Amino acid sequence: MLLSDADTTLILETVRDAARREIMPRFRALSEADINTKSAPDDLVTAADLAAEALITAQLGRAFPDALILGEEAVAADPNLRDQLADAEMAIIIDPVDGTWNYARGLALFGVILAVTRYGIPVYGLLYDPVMDDWVVSGEDAATCYTNARNSRALRLPATPPETKAGGYVPLGSLPDPHRLRVAALWPEIGRLNSLRCACHEFRMLAQGHVDFMLSTRLTPWDHAAGVLVVQQAGGTAKMLDGSAYSAVRRDGYLLSARSADVWSEIQQAFSFLLD
Fold it and tell me: Which of the listed residues 65, 85, 125, 185 has the most CB atoms within 10 Å of its CB?
């Protein structure tokens, strides 16, 4: 399976179309009936998630009839769908509105994530911002690029470590209770720790060199597969905290992405207690 330029253009334009038709018209216009919960009170799904995923699934299903289409909301309805990912020569993985909590609360910090995998290995990644209509994209044989209405430019992370203490994103609330205080205690040593509640924008910030690392928990392929490829193709390092390679098939463990191998090693040592 090799995606052509026409294929990737079709994928991008399908995502943009879904944003124009289903996501942006509902932004800051949702009723209470348009917002529901899934696994927890703060695990939200909106009418925009469902409509955007349905549109992208239908259009890409027609364009790629042999591909496995794996949307976050489809998996929420039928978790067994995820079992097909490891054996799929081509899978298209969709997060129709990443950062749904932000979106539902009227915060303009959400995006659409789409990845294409080959037997679980990412070969195409798209991190799209519907608000600004711009995107970060990469392929297995292509550099990571940022594109907006004015221009497009390649993203390349500096090979040298940052001059200040490394700072990044850590989902403190998603960590097991015994580890939260230990992570908080790292603040003086590491520097600034944040969370945007949106993997799409966290990966975008990392790929552009605005932060140094990103720790991910609760491995879900719609949140991480695209971002891993984007960071790697920008010259960064993204692999499991135990040092093993990332695969979208993985369901357990911690994913650590960083601007360079040196920063990855530094942060891995700081967070190695999570592996105990």
Answer: 125
Core vs surface per residue 50-62: b (16+ CB within 10 A) or e = bbbbbbbbebbee
Q: Over the stretch 77-106, which tens digit does the pLDDT of each residue have?
A: 999 999 999 999 999 999 999 999 999 999
What element of type H or E holds 59?
helix 47-63
Tokens of 127: 């991190």
pTM of the model: 0.96
d(CA 95, CA 57): 11
Taking alpha carbons only, the member of 96, 94, 95, 84 closest to residue 120 is 84
Whether residue 67 lies inside any domain: the answer is yes
Residue 17's domain comprises 5-154
In a domain, 74, yes or no: yes
Residues 107 and 213 in one domain: no
Last residue of a domain, one of 124, 154, 184: 154
CA distance 203 to 127: 8
